[in-house]
Design a protein that fits this description.
Structural class: mainly alpha
CATH class of the largest domain: Mainly Alpha
Radius of gyration: 21 Å
CATH architecture of the largest domain: Up-down Bundle
Strand content: under 5%
Largest sheet: none
Oligomer: single chain
Number of strands: 0
Distance between the termini: 18 Å
């Protein structure tokens, strides 16, 4: 990295922090608006899940390819164009006249999101040395949780008073701010893998495999769903074989085969996000349908979890510069499991205070897990792999979020079918909710062991 880029560290931190805020703000604000969107377009619970999942699936498909493109051709270029596409798609979503149009614009939004999501952490890691990395990554993660915190409250307010489309207008304006920062303020470029060729075939195989798995989840318990999942898993196997043989793979599989810290840190991230992401979606539906709260009040309750995340993530990041990340993040995973287990007891008469306390426990656990885990991943690889490592971590995060939504949609399909949520099926909805939280608890407990297995890292710094 050039001296010019080193002098540009503050701008890098600002740009990556704004980007880290943007995507979670969009997700959490849209979650609170889903019942309103469902009523306007007469969508079932499963179809509503696709408003969130279409965005996540697109990001998951393109994170690794764009991470590699950024390594080869320049991360700033990929970041900037991604912010531009994301902003345009946000504006397009405001004109949605049908569920299909909205889901389509969310796909385009996911494409842009993948471009800046995968390169943001890589640029930040390139600009800061290992001794400062935990601090700035903690700030970056904290920004993510500030976005998650503001999303439900502001999204609920906007939905209630201006309609759900206003969320996309606001997000487009914020995206425009990011575009201006990147093209007018961010100097320098980062392309440590310049000269390598791009693995188009591997990227296509990976994308098709993820589509198969996620579409299959949405179609279960039908046999066609199981068939698509099997096809997706076969595609994943073919992808791994291809990457091991190609000269310039889009994902260097040796990062997994010869680097236990990298492999187990990514596995821990996958399990953690698979266990926790759907909480916002499920609790938004619960608070508005079962508790009868309006979007604004539901958002005020859901803010408990991300506020705790935002407060404690910088502290956890700083601690991971001095204490082994696996100890901090494993403790965080254990707390997350406890929070999920508490939520598995909710019913129609559950006190709001109990729900809030459970979300606080879950938020503290996630804060202790996330930034130390990111520090572990990025500190376990060479500079030339920062883009791919950031993309892989992002893929684990997004794939976990996608699988979390897939499990939620599958449980809804089993318990209440592909119909709108109405008072007649509230008992089935609650039973499905409790089943989901118990499943997520078990998954989080398994993630504790993956987190502990990563080994020692600070000797490499």
């Amino acid at each position: 990295m050039t001296d010019k880029a080193f002098s540009n560290k503050t701008v890098v931190l600002i740009v990556s922090t704004v980007a880290a805020f943007l995507a979670p703000f969009m997700s959490s604000s849209v979650n609170i608006a889903l019942p309103s969107i469902g009523r306007e377009f007469e969508m079932s619970a499963v179809a509503l899940g696709w408003v969130a999942t279409s965005y996540l699936l697109t990001i998951a498909m393109f994170l690794v390819p764009f991470g590699k493109v950024g390594d080869i051709y320049g991360r700033k270029k990929v970041f900037g164009w991604g912010a531009l596409i994301y902003t345009a798609a946000s504006m397009l979503s405001t004109f949605a006249h049908s569920a299909l149009f909205l889901i389509g614009s969310r796909v385009l939004q996911g494409l842009g999101g993948a471009m800046f999501y995968t390169t943001g952490v890589a640029i930040l890691t390139s600009a800061y040395p290992p001794g400062e990395r935990g601090r700035v990554l903690g700030i970056n993660v904290s920004s993510t949780y500030i976005g998650l915190s503001i999303g439900p409250v502001l999204g609920g307010f906007l939905t209630q008073h201006l309609g759900w489309r206003s969320i996309f207008w606001l997000n487009g304006i914020l995206g425009l701010v990011l575009v201006v920062l990147v093209f007018w303020k961010l100097r320098g470029e980062w392309a440590e893998a310049k000269g390598e060729t791009f693995d188009l075939a591997g990227s296509m195989i990976l994308g098709l495999a993820l589509i198969g798995i996620m579409l299959g989840f949405s179609m279960l318990p039908k046999m066609a769903g199981a068939g698509l999942i099997l096809a997706g898993l076969i595609g994943a196997f073919i992808f791994v074989r291809w990457e091991l043989r190609t000269e310039d793979p889009v994902l260097n599989m040796n990062l997994f085969r010869k680097n236990a810290a990298f492999a187990f840190s990514n596995l821990a991230a996958l399990m953690n996000y698979s266990a926790t992401f759907a909480v916002g979606f499920l609790m938004s539906l619960y608070l508005q349908y079962i508790k009868g709260l309006n979007p604004q009040k539901a958002g005020l309750i859901l803010i408990a979890q991300p506020v705790v995340m935002a407060l404690f993530s910088p502290l956890a990041g700083r601690l991971s510069d001095r204490i082994e990340p696996r100890r901090i993040s494993s403790a965080g995973m254990g707390l997350s499991a406890l929070g999920l287990f508490l939520l598995s007891f909710i019913g129609g008469q559950t006190a709001i205070a109990f729900i809030g306390a459970s979300l606080v426990v879950l938020g503290l656990g996630f804060a202790l897990f996330s930034s130390p885990n990111i520090n572990a991943v990025m500190s376990s690889v060479e500079k030339r792999y920062y883009g791919v490592a950031s993309a892989m971590l992002g893929t684990m995060r997004i794939t976990g979020q996608m699988l979390s939504m897939g499990v939620a949609m599958l449980i809804f399909a089993i318990y209440i079918g592909r119909v709108q949520i109405r008072p007649a099926n509230y008992p089935q909805f609650l039973a499905g909710l409790r089943t989901a939280f118990l499943f997520f608890t078990a998954l989080c407990i398994g993630g504790v062991f993956a987190s502990l297995a990563r080994g020692t890292l600070h000797s490499k710094d």
